[in-house]
Input
Amino acid sequence: MNRIVIAAAVAAAFVLPALAQDKPAPPSWQQGKPAAQSESTLHPFAIEMTGKASKDLPVDKLKVPSGFKVEVWAEGMPGARSMAMGDKGTLFVGTRQLKDVYAVVDRGGKREVKTLLKGLDSPNGLVFNKGTLYVAERNRITRYDGIENNLDNPPEPKVIVDNLDPNKAPGHFWKFLALGPDGKLYFNIGAPGNIVMPTYNEASIMRVDPNSGTLETVALGVRNSVGMDFHPKTKQLWFTNHARDWLGDDSPHDTLHRVSRKGMHFGYPFCHQGDTPDPEFGKNRSCKEFDPPTLKLGAHIAPIGMRFYTGKMFPAEYQGNIFIAMRGSWNRTEKQGYNVMRVVLDENGKIAKYEPFLTGFLLDAKADPPMWGRPNDVMVMKDGALLVSDDQNGILYRVSTAK
Amino acid sequence: MIAALRNATALTVAFLFSAAAAAADPNACAACHGEGGNSTNPAVPSIAGQPAKFISTALYMFREGYRKDPQMTPMAAQLSNSELNELAAYFSKQQAAPPKHRASAENAKAGPELAKKFNCTQCHGPRLLGQEQMPRLAGQQYDYLVAQLRAFKAGKRGELDGNMTAAAQAVPDKEMAALADYIAGLGAQ
Output
């Protein structure tokens, strides 16, 4: 009797992989698509690898609140994403789909764009600190010392940490990079697919000591965060997170999180948005086991860069607000997002207001594609203006108070 | 043999054009890709009516060396982003000619299921007309389709995201030929 059971189990073990091969795995963005949506034609939107010129785009559709103005600040940087400002005024811009890092140099009011670094592997994350540019690639974090003195001849990078992507799985392998108040570099390791069980260091936020290379896990259960910043007063880490796809137009929400202690777990892949168990991975777990988000941002809005506003230019009520760039949906029948949002916190750090700040990229929510541009990162400039990158076209916009 | 001869001719023509014509002149492309981008050379793909983003992305990859080809690499090398965009806009607006290829009855029947099974339709669309940065496959040259699929399977064809290299691994050689035969005979509209 037992022998028959074992034989059957052995046979099953051999037959199952054969059956799995019968239908080859779909591309990673289709992973987790339920049978009920098998005929869905929703698909991601690709960026313009060659960029687009602002003169060929409806930039006049961009809108900011009364008292502000928005203008094209620099262009010709295909795939422009994360931004970091150098001490001497060089703006560094990273890319995800390309292999380049750009430098924008202000020459007497005229901005010159150059490709600073080439041939990198998804150099999405950038931090500038004390003369050094730190770059987070797919697999490693490196440093370029004295970069602003060597823009025409950048030095060879020194590796801080390597082998961050040993599985080389498709999914969310690009990294954001932020400098913590502790002098450590914070970054994400995204989930290797839409909805999959992560391995030990995936779906996390980690930090590395740039001097020793020592790694620590900061938070777990984070599907994919490509935007983070530290509260100017509490110094706590806040970050944006992309929720899973293929669970419908209105669920789950993308989220904003606050890390109040080390080792928090925000639920992925078991629980989404703090209260929605995953239909597959959540079956034997409870959302009560996990830490909830601070704010639900909307379903399929794709929040990327976020920064606390600490500049001197905007009106006083903007002090300590959070700006969030939303890259916008694809996995939704009617598209939404594609705005820069403003989050107002009250004195206790609770969410007081959540409203659009820069809009106009979305042209027709039902069209394919629905937008002409996609906000990706936000950065507060030294004079207090807000820079917004648009990776769809490779353009940077500047929002300032109108004079 | 004939294909090789055609390639040699195309290479010479391309060289003459690249030397003589303005860099972003669509006529230089038409020398190999056919009038209006409708190729009559089995080894050269039709680019008429392809999604503009596919054309600009392909040219970008040739220029940057992420995709390599003895004819295309030098053609793309000198072109700026705005020139690539102009060529992409031009050829995306050309009318794709109906295919001359006729699939065997057997492959025409089996094709739709094969295209679904091997995930072709997941990205290239239900009728394989292409979208975004992904090319229209319907009505493409048979020899070119087979060559690309083989190169993807061998890990020798540059791409941006690895999806085609991954997808091609699952396609046995026999079904690759059947799939290409079916696709090459599909209407491009």
